[in-house]
Write a structure and sequence with these properties.
The complex is a heterodimer of chains A (about 425) and B (about 280). Chain A is built from nine helices and 18 strands. Chain A is an alpha/beta fold. Chain A has three domains: about 35 residues, no CATH class; about 190 residues, P-loop containing nucleotide triphosphate hydrolases (Rossmann fold), CATH 3.40.50.300; about 120 residues, Coagulation Factor XIII, Chain A, domain 1 (Distorted Sandwich). In chain B, α4 runs antiparallel to α7. Classes of the chains: A alpha/beta (about 425), B mainly alpha (about 280).
Chain lengths: ~425, ~280
């Protein structure tokens, strides 16, 4: 079967010259042209000068996509994933190489593209739908479904600027979810909204894939990638490092990225912001081991404190936090939220810029292995403020919970439940 | 070689590309939606905001009449100065507002350009929709004024729609070039308003062509709006047409339009990278 997409030797080069060499204003261009006309002519032809710093965001990327396949594209931030999607969506052109596509591509690189704050929800559905490539007739047909999915019947005729960010995101995704593309390209947009909503979105994605459509999916959610995707592509530093089944690729990616990498600071990691400005941001997460006096390492039943540093960027009256431990396969193991699970809500001080919240775990019951910690800050049922997946890793190096010398390994079971054995007499 | 039997091929941008009419047609629904959006957003604004947009030529007319008509006593081709200047302001406002709106239109849609694909030309051209609505309303005011001054339109008014069409073509052509330049060079957005101001003085809006000595009139005619504005007055008030000027205007407008489209088409591939 002929592949539906053939990517051949795609490369994308950016020329990041020094500030003086780059021309941001017409005045500079005119002066530069008068001073060195030949150099200007070369620039117009796209021939870079020796003093220009060249950065290849992508180089020699080649792979085929079969019809009906769901391809997961993984890689560290800056690996070139978004650039590849942009090229496939025709938003930017490649510097070299070719892509041949046999079908229509619908791109979802962001939710709520084109939403206008002064227009009502109803009007924005038509606007956003058209921008995503849906025909008017199609939008008419699906209008009621979209409204139902977004759960905003009551607010359909209010201007979107009055929506809460949760409603905004739900509406934006509802429109996008009803696209019927031949080929769908999705870029980490599912990282928004509360857990319930994310599940709904994943469900919709699964429907799309079951309908035999081809999907290219960029995400950091390893579980989602394993579940949804058949094929995986790993990009590293702009190069196509590996192509294989999604499980193989995710395994390789995780194993080559284990333990905290100090260069990938949480504060600077790209996260998905649903169209509205960030008010609260997680800047660092660390798991302190009170017993062994170290970080991010422990033994089963050690006393731990999860420390979450945050930065307040705009007015927040209160927020809650949630953490989630997952294994390397992306399976959820345990989670806890200050609220609604607990009853703790955090109130930042009036002029507070940076702060830290802590979660005390008296005896961590995880067995030997490596665990991934996701952290989120939010207002329950209202809005997700920040969400960092893989914020921190916890490595349980040894596990001798019953002090018998017997190692309690993950293969047996992920949790150790404290218990006592005895025999009843008689 | 891959590419045969495939519906789309994505390749590095090469050479000079012609304008892709078929693609524009495919995206026509998006075009109309953007026009609808601009008009809707305009008229959802405050009453004063909307009123100003409609009455801008009328208010300008009052100010100009006071200073140029009454105080400076600029001649007005044997017509009452107010209606003389309004007849010039009517197409001029369409041109100048089209220019200022169109030139900033692309820069204002940074988000759409970096996250979705569609022929970028839709953005500046759709920005003219709102301007056309304003124009139609201003034209009704014109009709009222003509009634007030007892001027009965002759057959020459049939040329009027053609003149407005030429105005649109010229305005689109220039604003498309400015829009593309504004994306690449950030100082253009400060130059544009100044350019438009100067352009107005180079156009016979406030003054009649007869003020310019005969042998220099051809220089003035290089301004495409010159022939159009003059022609508008002839069309509305039944005066003689200067067909040479008009033809020159039409030709230059058409040229600006073609050059604008080609220039825009050949730099739009870089927008997402530099915006």
């Amino acid at each position: 079967m002929k592949p539906i997409i053939r990517i051949e030797n795609i490369g994308k080069m950016y020329s990041i010259g020094a500030k003086e060499k780059r021309h941001d204003t017409l005045g500079e261009v005119i002066i530069h042209t008068l001073k060195s006309p030949l150099r200007r002519l070369k620039e117009l032809q796209g021939i870079a000068h020796s003093y220009d710093t060249i950065f290849w965001a992508l180089k020699n990327v080649s792979f085929d996509v079969e019809k009906g396949d769901v391809v997961g594209i993984v890689g560290r931030n800056g690996a070139g994933k978004s650039t590849l999607l942009k090229i496939l969506s025709k938003i930017t052109d490649p510097t070299e190489g070719r892509i041949a596509i046999n079908g229509r591509i619908s791109s979802l690189l962001e939710v709520g593209t084109g939403f206008h704050p002064d227009l009502t929800g109803r009007e924005n559905i038509y606007l956003n739908g058209a921008i995503l490539g849906m025909k008017q007739a199609e939008i008419n047909r699906k209008f009621d479904e979209i409204v139902e999915f977004a759960e905003i019947e009551k607010f359909l005729d209010t201007p979107v600027k009055r929506y809460s960010s949760g409603m905004y995101v739900r509406l934006a995704f509802a429109v996008a979810a009803h696209l019927e593309p031949e080929i769908l390209i999705v870029d980490e947009v599912l990282a928004v909204g509360d857990i319930q909503f994310q599940k709904k979105c994943m469900g919709k994605m699964e429907d799309v894939s079951k309908g035999g459509r081809t999907i290219l999916f960029v995400s950091h959610n390893m579980g989602a990638l394993r579940n949804l995707c058949k094929t995986g592509v790993l990009l590293e530093g702009g190069l196509c490092k590996m192509i294989g089944s999604s499980n193989e690729v995710v395994d390789y990616y995780l194993s080559s990225n284990s333990s905290n990498d100090t260069t990938d600071q949480i504060k600077f990691r790209k996260r998905h912001r649903p169209g509205l400005p960030t008010r609260l941001q997680i800047t660092n997460v660390v798991i302190e081991n009170k017993k062994l006096n170290c970080v991010n390492e422990a033994e089963t039943l050690d006393e731990l404190v999860i420390k979450i540093d945050y930065e307040v960027l705009a007015n927040i009256d209160s927020f809650c936090a949630e953490w989630k431990f997952k294994d390397l396969y992306g399976t959820n193991l345990s989670y806890s939220s200050s609220s609604p699970l607990g009853n703790i809500v955090f109130y930042p001080e009036a002029n507070e810029r940076c702060g830290q919240i802590q979660c005390h775990i008296p005896k961590v019951p995880l067995s030997m292995g490596e665990y991934v910690l996701d952290v989120a800050l939010f207002k329950p049922n209202v809005v997700l403020m920040d969400h960092v997946e893989d914020a921190c890793r916890l490595i349980i190096k040894t596990s001798d919970p019953m002090k018998t010398g017997f190692q309690y390994k993950r293969e047996n079971a992920p949790f150790f439940i404290e218990c006592e054995w005895s025999k009843s007499s008689g | 070689m891959i590419g045969e039997e495939y519906s789309t091929v994505i390749e590095p941008h090469k050479g000079l590309n012609p304008f892709n009419w078929r693609e524009f047609w495919r995206y026509r629904e998006l075009f109309f939606i953007l026009v609808w959006r601009d008009i809707k957003v305009r008229y959802k604004q405050t009453f004063l905001g909307v009123a100003w947009a409609i009455f801008q030529p009328f208010v300008s007319m009052i100010v100009f009449t006071l200073f140029f008509g009454v105080l400076v006593k600029v001649p007005s081709d044997n017509l009452p100065y107010p209606i003389f200047v309004y007849a010039g302001l009517l197409p001029w406002t369409l041109f100048s507002n089209g220019l200022s709106r169109g030139s900033m239109s692309v820069l204002n849609e940074t988000n759409m350009i970096s996250k979705t694909y569609f022929p970028r030309l839709i953005i500046p051209i759709s920005s003219f929709g709102a301007g056309m609505v304003d124009f139609v309303i201003s034209f009704f005011i014109m009709a009222v004024m003509m009634f007030y001054y007892g001027i009965i339109p002759t057959l020459s008014i049939l040329v009027f729609p053609l003149l407005i069409f030429i105005t649109l073509i010229a305005s689109i052509g220039v604003s498309v070039i400015l829009a593309a330049l504004t994306v690449s060079y950030r100082d253009v957005k400060y130059i544009s308003p100044f350019l438009i101001q100067i352009w107005m003085y180079a156009t016979p809006v406030i003054y009649p062509v007869s003020v310019v000595p005969e042998k220099w009139r051809w220089v003035l005619s290089l301004n495409p709006m010159c022939g159009v504005i003059d022609g508008c007055r002839s069309a509305l008030f039944g005066k003689t047409f200067y067909w040479n000027n008009l033809l020159l205007s039409a030709l230059i407008s058409f040229l600006l339009f073609i050059v604008g489209l080609i220039y825009f088409k050949n730099v739009e591939y870089r927008f997402a990278d530099i915006i």
